[in-house]
Write a structure and sequence with these properties.
The chain has about 325 residues and is of the alpha+beta class. It contains eleven helices and 14 strands. Helices cover about 35% and strands about 15% of the residues.
Length: about 325
């Protein structure tokens, strides 16, 4: 967590501010159901309330990125010396390794099972699914962590329906329709926003894919691929198209999402066309535009008309997404 850690208290005498810790008096109008009791008279807000409070101080793009992360299976902690020190201590002690990134046997894999059912519990109920540090293909630790989702698009929608007169509901509702559950990395989030976001934010408005849904291989494909299943990043099942987002680090473990030769052969044996997307390609708008034309033909989904207004919104979305890094 970034410092200072901010909590709420119901006792005036307990308020305090230090470089590490801010305890503020909670507002009288803050519903108790929006609070998580830490004990000792200290509280934090629920994830839904936290996102609502963020809605008025973040730009729409920043808010959507936070929503994707909260509804997805990844986290990007701050890059500060304190975090690096903690990770180095865990690595030095052998508590986490590239082979056992969580130090536990329980692992986080697909977001949806092979039948399209949600496979992961929410983080608050996921006692057996600890956070996992992500390593790159060379076995080096990265800033990314896997963890169970904190909430979902549906849960957020139901929450704001119950607090319609609260500050922040309007901007949160305005962008929530662009959010898709199950993203597993920042690059997946960026690609989903560019492809499936509405034209009003600069996206193409394409049909939403299955995100990180498991595909079980039949026996003949298992022999070809050497694997029993695959978990495509983005899959348009009815159209037979799979997009794999090859981020710098996230898809590197043996059972994770990296596209290997055997795995790709297995997907293609099932009749899927597999397209790979890298961070460098999405970051370069000229390259991305050229790729979009091929994606549009493969998916049979039209590109938005390149009006000056749309291109301005698209360039603003792209610039803000990649300017955050």
């Amino acid at each position: 967590m970034s410092l200072p850690v901010r909590v709420l208290t119901d006792e005036v005498s307990a308020t305090a501010k230090t470089a590490l810790f801010h305890a503020s008096r909670m507002r009288d109008d803050l519903p108790r159901e929006d609070l998580i009791n830490l004990g000792g008279g200290l509280y934090v807000t629920t994830i839904e309330r936290t996102l609502l409070d963020c809605a008025c101080r973040l730009s729409p793009v920043q808010l959507m990125v936070k929503l994707f992360e909260a509804c997805g299976t990844y986290a990007v902690p701050p890059a500060d010396p304190r975090v690096r020190c903690a990770v180095n201590m865990l690595l030095a002690s052998g508590e986490i390794t590239p082979e056992h990134p969580s130090g536990e046997r329980a692992r986080i894999f697909e977001f949806y099972d092979a039948k399209g059912r949600r496979a992961l519990p929410y983080e608050a109920q996921a006692d057996l699914l600890p956070w996992e540090l992500c390593f790159d293909t060379c076995g080096r630790p990265t800033r990314l962590w896997r963890r169970p989702p904190l909430t979902s698009k549906g849960r957020i929608a139901r929450y704001i329906d119950g607090v319609v007169h609260t500050r922040g509901v309007a901007p949160l509702r305005h962008v929530l329709g662009n959010v898709i559950d199950g993203s597993a990395s920042p690059l997946e989030t960026e690609v989903l926003l560019m492809l499936c976001g509405s034209k009003w934010i600069g996206g193409e408005g394409w049909e939403e894919p299955w995100v990180n849904r498991r595909l079980d291989f039949p026996s003949n494909v298992r022999a070809l691929s050497g694997q029993g299943y695959a978990i495509p990043d983005q899959m348009w099942l009815d159209r037979g198209i799979i997009f794999e987002c090859q981020g710098k680090a996230f898809h590197a473990d043996e059972q994770g999402f990296e596209v290997r030769n055997g795995r790709r052969a297995g997907l293609e044996a099932l009749g899927f066309e597999v397209r790979e997307i890298t961070d460098a390609q999405v970051r370069n708008l000229e390259i991305w535009d050229a790729m979009l034309e091929g994606f549009s033909r493969a998916l049979d989904m039209p590109l938005r008309k390149r009006t000056p207004a749309f291109l301005r919104r698209r360039d603003e979305l792209h610039g803000e997404l990649f300017g955050m890094k």
